[in-house]
From TrEMBL, chain A:
Residues 242-364 form the HD domain. Keywords: Hydrolase, Membrane, Transmembrane, Transmembrane helix. Residues 414-436 are annotated as: Disordered. Gene3D superfamilies: Hypothetical protein af1432. The chain crosses the membrane at residues 9-27, 33-50, 62-85, 137-157, 169-191, 197-215. Residues 427-436 have a biased composition (Polar residues). Residues 220-415 form the HD-GYP domain. This is Metal-dependent phosphohydrolase. One of its GO terms (molecular function) is hydrolase activity. Coiled coil: none annotated. It holds the Pfam family HD_5.
From TrEMBL, chain B:
The chain crosses the membrane at residues 85-103, 112-130, 142-165, 185-211. This is Metal-dependent phosphohydrolase. Keywords: Hydrolase, Membrane, Transmembrane, Transmembrane helix. InterPro entries: Cyclic_di-GMP/3'3'-cGAMP_PDE, HD/PDEase_dom, HD_domain. GO terms for molecular function: hydrolase activity. Residues 255-358 form the HD domain.
Length: 436, 409
């Protein structure tokens, strides 16, 4: 990331050149200078507040510019924001040029499309159902140009293959930009109305509040994940197991769940089930968990309380859903000799059977204080031997298939968010056994 | 209860008068009224049934306000008067509320009374003067500014009403409630007001098409506020569960953390903490014993208040370290680790947690007249231990809720 490849520099230069070409006919147009200055200042202010403090970009002003000004003038609106914005990463000027040129081209294209469809008259005349057509087309053009240029910079600077760079860029941005476009349209209409720019400014307030709340949401969500992570780390440290056991169990559970074709929501719940399966060990004295020698029956009984402790702890966390029963029953065995309730066969909840297999697999393949790590193949053979008595054969087979397809690359994510575990290539369809 | 009766009574009076006048004089511009009625009803339909949020139906509120301040439709001056505004808003709100009542959710009389009174206020301020032509010389931007000023006034009235209602329902002090309501105006409150003004202006310029076009951004705001509320609720559940770890490990009696948190919140409200401070206080109270997880041997019955000061401080510091690790707001960790300091050096939240924790432990030990004896012990304790103003506030809170031992969860 330190050195920007030459072709990326060339790409940015080309985009900047195009932007300059777009602005060139400016002296020939009768641009309302004060409106341009006001919009540009407004955009810079919004970017300063929304973009820097909250993250994300704020398009309503840009799109209002595209609906109000001739294309050459509209292309100038993003300029001051890019020049005065603080850029943290080097090379500073290259980034500034990029941030000015990219939205310039997009706004120019939007204004061009909007003008060609007669949008400016529709805005002035408040020709209402029709005014939505040029505005919609302009939003589409805006998104297309943004996505195309973004894909280009990904391809040149980060060496992402073009096809992958463009995948999803457009579909992801279309909905939010469309909402911003409606706000921009309202701004433009009010701007041209007798009430003037003052009324147009009012449109920005709800949008700003929306951005602010959205940022709060993300902050709170990150804090929540950090808390869960801390909970898990506390268990890992207390248990003296190798670091990251819980997260690896989460990962293996996800692999099994995907292989079984569960939907995304359920896969996510199973990730949490795997991560939190041993949370009840917080309630077991550390002395017992770390004891080296054989356990007395009394001590064993206390340790075997941990699924119930864990269930008691997470009982009140509603988003965990099914994961709570998985935590309670992950030590049940298929033949009914497990604990805490001695359930057998189909009585054991499906998610608990998944977590049981994942837990045993990671216990075998990681180094413990009392045993060395075994290779993946040995562990799978061992699981298959116990399938039917201890484990559900369906889950064991799913794990074996998933391992055969993707291998076992436990990410060392003790310092990352649990949800940040890089998902393996999503399994698409084919549930029939793949050749190992 | 008098304030509650007063508000409900005057709302009923306003509604009855508005209905009577509307039946007498008929409805002007049915199309516009219908469009706004549908908007308000939809807003009510999508209102949140969940826990306490300041603005449960932003779309409905914005729609009602903009109808109250509507002066023209696509350039043509409108004729509707204030009683008609109240009638339509009332009818639409009731219609939108029917499915909620059908589903067995509690009827929202307070909400309706507030809506009627604030909308009535805005409409009475605006419509008679507008229909007499007083605002004709307010051209262009000045008119927009006028609308905004009216809305700010209305929002202030609404905040006072909301605080008065909350005060008479919960008996929490009025001042902090009003302050929290006013602070809430800056967030989604301002978005609702701005949307109300924009819709009124946009309909005046572009006709009724402006309504659906401008609903969308507000719906977006509503959506993100709802998601924010959801993730906050989830976070609270996680913290409460984390706090139960000590109970499950047998370090503290069942329900202790929850009871301390509830009582601390009540005391914090009584002392006039802001909502953000209350959140910190609640989290800190829930996790105040978490340092005991780091002990090798449990303290008997988790009664930390009886330990020597040095030991108490050590446990508090351990707890602070755990809380810091969990990534909760750093202010929470500060409260947890300073809960055993001499009270003069403590932040207010830490004083509250300390006093309430000691009360809870003492009251539990002492049996049937425990609460009274525990309070007495707190009052007589050495001056440096428990802050007198917190103990007095605790006494007030307890006398309000009757001096009984809460049922163990």
């Amino acid at each position: 990331m330190e050195a920007v490849p030459a072709r990326a520099r060339g790409y940015v230069a080309c985009v900047a050149l195009l932007a300059v070409l777009c602005v060139l006919p400016l002296p020939a147009t009768h641009a309302p200078w004060w409106a341009l200055a006001l919009l540009a200042a407004l955009y810079a202010a919004c970017e300063h507040v929304v973009g820097r403090r909250l993250g994300g970009t704020f398009y309503p002003v840009l799109l209002a510019g595209a609906f109000l000004l001739p294309p050459a003038a509209a292309a100038l609106v993003p300029l001051p924001a890019a020049l005065f914005a603080r850029v943290e990463q080097r090379p500073v000027w290259l980034r500034r040029v990029w941030r000015a040129a990219q939205p310039s081209l997009a706004v120019w294209a939007a204004a061009r499309v909007h003008g060609a469809l007669g949008g400016r008259d529709a805005v002035v005349g408040c020709d209402f159902p029709y005014a939505l057509v040029p505005a919609g087309a302009a939003v589409l053009a805006f998104c297309l140009v943004l996505a195309a240029l973004d894909g280009g910079i990904l391809a040149t600077a980060e060496h992402v293959p073009l096809r992958r760079a463009w995948r999803g860029l457009l579909s992801r941005s279309l909905a939010p930009v469309a909402v911003h476009g409606l706000a921009g349209l309202m701004m433009a209409v009010l701007w041209r109305s007798p009430y003037g720019p003052v009324a147009a400014l009012l449109v920005l307030l709800p949008m700003c509040v929306s951005c602010w709340v959205f940022a709060q949401y993300h902050r709170e969500r990150a804090a929540h994940q950090a808390t869960i992570r801390a909970l898990v780390q506390a268990v890992d440290i207390k248990d003296g197991y190798t670091r990251g056991h819980s997260e690896r169990v989460g990962q293996a559970s996800v692999m099994i769940a995907r292989e079984l074709g569960m939907d995304d929501e359920r896969v996510e719940v199973l990730r949490f089930a795997g991560i939190l399966h041993d949370v009840g060990k917080l309630g077991v004295p550390t002395r017992l968990l770390r004891k080296d020698g054989p356990l007395t029956p009394e001590e064993r009984r206390i340790i075997e309380l941990h699924p119930e402790y864990g269930h008691e702890m997470v009982r009140g966390i509603s988003f965990l859903g099914e994961a709570r029963t998985a935590i309670l029953h992950h030590h049940e065995r298929l033949d009914g000799s497990g604990y805490p309730y001695g359930l057998a066969g189909g009585q054991i909840p499906e998610c608990a059977r998944v977590v049981a297999v994942a837990d045993a697999f990671d216990a075998m393949t990681s180094t413990r204080s009392y045993s060395r790590a075994r290779p993946v193949e040995t562990a799978v053979t061992e699981l298959e031997r116990c399938a039917g008595t201890q484990f559900d054969p369906r889950m064991v087979a799913a794990l074996a298939r998933a391992l055969g397809r993707h291998g076992w690359h436990p990410a060392v994510t003790a310092d990352e968010a649990p949800c940040g575990i890089p998902a393996q290539e999503p399994v698409t369809g084919s549930r029939s056994g793949a050749p190992r | 209860m008098t304030a509650l009766r007063l508000i409900h009574g005057s709302a009923a009076l306003v509604a009855a008068a508005a209905l009577a006048v509307t039946f007498w004089s008929g409805i002007h511009e049915r199309g516009v009224g219908l469009a706004f009625g549908v908007l308000i009803a939809v807003g009510e339909l999508t209102r949140w049934s969940g826990a306490q949020v300041r603005q449960a139906a932003p779309l409905g509120t914005a729609g009602s306000l903009s109808y109250a301040l509507l002066g023209a439709d696509a350039g043509q001056p409108t004729q509707h008067d204030a009683p008609q505004v109240v009638t339509i808003v009332l009818a639409a709100s009731l219609l939108g509320g029917v499915p909620h009542i059908w589903c067995g959710r509690s009827p929202t009389l307070d909400h309706l009374a507030r809506r009627v009174l604030t909308v009535g206020f805005a409409a009475v301020c605006f419509q008679p003067l507008y229909n007499k032509g007083v605002f004709t010389q307010w051209s262009g931007p000045a008119y927009a500014v006028l609308l905004v000023a009216l809305l700010v006034l209305t929002a202030l009235c609404d905040a006072v009403l909301a605080a008065a209602l909350a005060h008479s329902r919960t008996r929490w002090p009025f001042g902090p409630l009003l302050r929290d309501e006013l602070r809430g105006l800056l967030g989604i409150g301002s978005a609702v007001c701005a949307t109300g003004a924009v819709m009124a202006l946009a309909v005046a310029v572009a006709g009724l098409w402006a309504l659906p076009v401008f609903c969308l951004p507000l719906l977006l705001t509503q959506l993100s506020v709802r998601r924010y509320a959801a993730v906050r609720a989830t976070y609270r559940q996680t913290i409460a569960s984390l706090a139960r770890a000590t109970e499950i490990a047998g370090y503290t009696p069942a329900g202790h953390a929850r009871r301390v948190a509830a009582l601390s919140l009540a005391v914090g409200r009584d002392l006039g903490l802001t909502e953000a401070e209350l959140t910190v206080l609640e989290y800190a109270a829930l996790m105040h014993d978490i340092g005991q997880l780091s002990l090798v041997d449990p303290v008997p019955a988790g009664a930390t208040a009886a330990l020597p000061a040095q030991e108490q401080r050590r446990i508090a510091l351990l707890g602070g370290a755990v809380v810091r690790q969990t990534g909760v707001d750093a202010a929470v960790a500060v409260v947890v680790e300073r809960q055993a300091d001499p009270c003069r050096e403590q932040p207010l939240a830490a004083r509250i947690v300390r006093a309430v924790n000691a009360y809870e432990e003492k009251a539990r030990e002492a049996g049937s007249d425990g609460p009274l004896r525990a309070l007495e012990e707190l009052r007589l304790a050495t001056a440096g231990d428990y802050a007198p103003e917190v103990v007095e506030s605790l006494a007030r809170v307890l006398s309000r809720d009757c001096l009984t031992l809460p049922v163990a969860g």
